[in-house]
Amino acid sequence: MTQKRILLKSGKERSILQRHPWVFSGAIASVSGDPQPGETVEICSAGGERLGWAAYSPHSSIRARIWSFDPDEVIDAEFFIRKIQAAAYLRHLLALTAETNAYRLIHGEADGIPGLVVDLYPETAVVQILSAGAEYWREVIVDLIQQITGCKAVVERSDVEIRQLEGLPIREGVIRGGEIPGLLKIEENGIHYWVDVVGGQKTGFYLDQRQNRKRLTQFARDREVLNAFCYTGGFTLSAMAGGAKSVLSIDSSAAALRLAAKNLELNGFDSTRNEWLEGNVFHELRLLRDRNKKFDLIVLDPPKFAPTSAQAQKAARAYKDINLLGFKLLRKGGILFTFSCSGGIGRELFQKIVADAALDAGVEARIVEVLSQSGDHPVALNFPESAYLKGLICIVG
Ligand code: SAH
Q1: What is the CATH number of domain 77-176?
Q2: Which of 165, 179, 316, 384 lies most in the core, judged by the most C-beta atoms within 10 Å?
Q3: Looking at the annotation, which residues are catalytic?
Q4: CA 31, 34, 40 angle in degrees (round to 5)?
Q5: What is the CATH number that goes with domain 206-396?
Q6: Ligand 1 mean position to 301 CA, how many Å?
Q7: Residue 126, H or E segment
Q8: Can you give the pTM of this predicted structure?
């Protein structure tokens, strides 16, 4: 049998020697052995040096994703056991159970398993399979996740657009463990939430914002809070737990707001201190500005406006727009928690956009804290793309 192999163009081994796990189509001189989607191929430099093993992805411009930079490693079930155990150990070191019973177990490339995301909820794992390679090993991976974590059910949420770039169909639903309750209850930083792992956004909950929700609690006392893009109320309930005077929460998703209201009730918070508003944040913030409404604390946690750098320019305008309105709606001494989860917008650019927004709003503001994704969404130093969530706490002078 001929070895399935990718031969790189001359000089294109550089990023791989730096342990970046992506091989772009433009770096490839030839593919031999007729690998099928997701099959393991050996990666070789133009000079014939063996660089490691990767999953072949014929439909994506990321033509191969490296499983291992060790030419002697064997990619088999044992390999995935080692990777999943290493990821579990990292989470163990983070002592997450002290603050939550829902966290990310596998963060794709950053945990050495390109294209695989696994979030763990009580008794339930939610998997997203985002690359041809992870798809090829799907059965093995799902079995191992169940064995290693001891979860009863596994839900698949392979329903994101990037699967199409990999030529993979959308797939979702409970794939192990039969029926699961409609909603799962989690506890994070002492606050309870209902999570819809089957029908909710992402895998049901924005676990990456856990530490930032906690931080907000510490700023909320006696403040009038605006939570824009509130989803199921994460920052809203955190503000309530911190003693906020009032919270106005906006989201365009009626389903998210219904669950948010249930969450408020679940925690026994005073619903007269909170208002849910279904609407478009861009529009609603303008209306609030026109009514001269002011807040003491504003959270802006929009969806991913720029998944890749190709959409960065358009996204920059959207970020600028909401941040400008945010600054205008703050009282003197007011605090802005502002975020971007767009891979296509770097930290430096994000800060520049927020600075431009403050300038145009005619306010002076200072960054008092820099925020990022929680540690169960680690950033691999060899894969800077894994740092996607950027946040700033700014105080208006
Ligand atoms: N902060 C939340 C997560 C926010 S996710 C948490 O901690 O859980 C982004 C949210 O923005 C989603 O709920 C989505 O429904 C909402 N959204 C997207 N575009 C919107 C728009 N233009 N106006 C209002 N909400 C929007």
Answers
A1: 3.30.750.80
A2: 316
A3: 341
A4: 80
A5: 3.40.50.150
A6: 7
A7: strand 124-129
A8: 0.96
Other CB atoms within a 10 A radius of the CB of residue 204 amount to: 26
Contact 380, 387 (CB under 8 A): no
In whole angstroms, how far apart are CA 278 and each of 255, 286, 287, 319, 385? 10, 15, 13, 20, 33
Contact 127, 154 (CB under 8 A): yes
Size of the chain in residues: 397
Whether the CB-CB separation of 324 and 361 falls below 8 Å is answered with yes
Domain ranges of the chain: 5-68, 77-176, 206-396
For domain 5-68, give the fold: 2.30.130
Beta bridge partners of 224: 246
Atom 12 in ligand 1: residue holding the nearest Cα = 231
| Ligand 1 contacts CB of residue 135 (under 6 A) | no
pLDDT at 182: 86
Best probe residue, ligand 1, of 216, 225, 231 (max atoms within 8 Å of C-beta): 231
3-state SS, residue 355: helix
Q: What is the dihedral of CA 109, 12, 59, 199, to 10 degrees?
A: 20
Ligand 1 nearest-atom number relative to CA 299 = 1
Share of the chain above pLDDT 70, in %: 99
Query: What is the pLDDT, as a whole number, of residue 359?
Result: 98
Yes or no: say if 251 and 230 are a contact pair by the CB < 8 Å rule.
yes
Q: Which two tokens stand for residue 328?
A: 């205008």
Contact (Cβ atoms closer than 8 angstroms) between residue 77 and residue 56:
no
Does 209 contact ligand 1 (Cβ within 6 A)? yes
**% of the chain beyond a pLDDT of 90:** 93
pLDDT score at 11: 97
| Residue 27 identity (one-letter amino acid) | A
